[in-house]
Write the structure tokens for this entry.
Amino acid sequence: MKNKKAQKELPPHPMEALLRSERLPHIWCAGCGIGTVFGSVIAAVQKSGFDPDKTAVVSGIGCTARMAGYIRLDSFHTTHGRAIAFATGLKLARPEIKVLVISGDGDLLAIGGNHFIHAARRNIDITVICVNNLNYGMTGGQLAPSTPFGAKTTSSVSGCPEEPFNFCYLASACGSVYVARWTTLHTRRITNSITEAMQKRGFSFVEILTPCPTSFGRRNKIGTALDTLKFYHERSVILNDIDPKDAPVDFGSKIVVGKFVDTERPTFLDNYHFVCKNEIGDWPDFNGTAMPESQATK
Ligand code: SF4
């Protein structure tokens, strides 16, 4: 009785406004890094200054995707791999809404890989946050396109025979206007990067390497989640402004983190309105050398 009275007198948590605490406890395992990222997401939404009534979160399926259910914003927990497709539709239908996509590496870059590359190419004005735990955590610890070569998963019991993607390099090569990578140790930098990414116009991408002690750590004898964080601490090297192709996630030597890309180019809607106004003229111009210019060169 005394404890209940004491609890009632506690001031509200600073993130309470955006946290659906009535849905707690959450589903994440002890030591999982997703909660850390979730805290940074909420802090970034608050810091960004966007109206919460005009901010939406879209997720796919997986452990990370459950964030959509715990945040007090308009949120959409969609189908596996299709978060970016849903987010694209939402942004085109309601351009005034700030759209955040938050999902895992398997969801965004394997099943959803095609949506990812084309949304980046089109420069759809959305922010994509990828929590990279190196495997499919929720579905049982299978190999993903992020799984390091040789790592053991439930679908690669002798070791992963594939080379993983460098997600930041992929995002950059496809045209993303903002690209950054951090680990869950870099909480303030994650918050700052998500805030900056939200303030960009265009396809912005933030990758966060996150311990998954239950599905990935256990099979690879990494130890506890704290051991993974110590490993990240020892191996992480911050190199801002370098080409992400030179920023590998190499568990054998170094994990390069930082803000790699921060640039401008017209969004899909900029170019769409431009061509709809019929300002592009005839195409192709067989009689001359001029090719239509996108809004980028105007
Ligand atoms: Fe986190 Fe892995 Fe557990 Fe999923 S399975 S909640 S990613 S520790």
Summary: The beta strands are 55-59, 74-77, 98-104, 127-132, 178-183, 204-209, 236-238, 255-262. The chain has a mean pLDDT of 92. Residues 28-29, 32, 34, 63, 133, 137-138, 212-215 surround iron/sulfur cluster (CB under 6 Å). The longest helix spans residues 34-48.
